[in-house]
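Tokens as discussed.
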């Protein structure tokens, strides 16, 4: 098995800001796995929040043995960006070997388009209202928040997009007191979901707290081992391939989460269509699909995913799977 890793940079269409900082480009690792006849590829986005860098993730991949499979990969690499890129490349490789699509190999129905959220980055209320107004035609908007002064931002976005469904992502930026204060206003403004209101290490405060709007675990949920720690705190889990370590674990996490009564959101880091492609299989029938990474870019891969009024479409074979 030959494994090649390259670094790619995609310019963002505009500065993207969350409570932890801003960026103007997406830096990703592209992994190509070849058996000498066929080649599959995948993409990951190393994430500093999880102590990942381009260098550290590349080193993890470089340390893989000469021979491995998707099954053995689960033990060779931990959940995270490195395993994600390799796992998704193996799915692509297996599909090409078999002359089938990845969803066939996974035993899934033929996928269709899913409405995806479009993310408005954190800014002043005035600028966020302008962002909302410019995207008011979109059915689902996601607002990046996570400061003690978010109420004016919420009001501004609702004023800018009065008919859109709104979900909120605090990126661990609120305290329990701030969240409790905001909760009734979230209901009043028609917010459909709140993502990770409290820091992952402090979310026990959610136990027993009234949740008038469904609360989604993001930073608190990585793979199946996360589920026992979510009980009594969350209603929804956000499954991201860069957290689960690939499509293999993501599919297993979705199945177990649903069996335990959670609803599912499928999210992404800011990456290209290659990173989103496997996640479109995972997103079928999800409560929320948030795969807008390519919409935030000024440039993308060749043969990119199609986004239209029906949502984000599954990939063509010339992109992935």
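Sequence:
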């Amino acid at each position: 098995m030959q494994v090649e890793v390259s670094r790619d940079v995609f310019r963002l269409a505009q500065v993207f800001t969350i409570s932890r900082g801003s960026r103007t480009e997406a830096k990703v690792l592209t992994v190509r796995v070849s058996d000498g006849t066929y080649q599959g590829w995948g993409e990951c986005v190393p994430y500093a929040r999880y102590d990942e860098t381009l260098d550290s993730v590349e080193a993890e991949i470089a340390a893989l043995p000469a021979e491995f499979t998707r099954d053995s990969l689960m033990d060779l690499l931990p959940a995270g960006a490195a395993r994600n890129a390799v796992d998704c490349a193996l799915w692509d490789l297996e599909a090409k070997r078999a002359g089938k699509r990845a969803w066939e190999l996974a035993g899934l129905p033929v996928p269709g388009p899913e409405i995806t959220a479009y993310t408005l980055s954190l800014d002043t209320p005035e600028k966020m209202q302008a962002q909302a107004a410019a995207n008011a035609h979109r059915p689902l908007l996601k607002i990046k928040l996570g400061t003690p002064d978010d109420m004016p931002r919420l009001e501004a976005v609702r004023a800018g997009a009065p008919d859109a469904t709104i979900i909120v992502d605090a990126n661990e930026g609120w305290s329990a007191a701030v969240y409790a204060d905001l909760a009734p206003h979230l209901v009043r403004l028609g917010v459909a979901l709140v993502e990770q209101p409290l820091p992952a290490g402090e979310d026990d405060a959610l136990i027993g707290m009234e949740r008038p709007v469904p609360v989604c675990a993001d930073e608190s949920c990585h793979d199946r081992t996360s589920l026992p720690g979510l009980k009594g705190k969350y209603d929804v889990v956000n499954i991201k391939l860069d957290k689960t370590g690939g499509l293999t674990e993501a599919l297993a996490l979705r199945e177990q989460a649903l069996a335990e009564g959670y609803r599912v959101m499928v999210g992404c880091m800011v990456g290209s269509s290659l990173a989103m492609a496997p996640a479109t299989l995972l997103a079928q029938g999800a409560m929320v699909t948030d795969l807008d990474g390519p919409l935030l870019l000024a440039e993308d891969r060749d043969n990119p995913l199609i986004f239209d009024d029906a949502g984000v479409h599954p990939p063509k074979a010339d992109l992935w799977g």
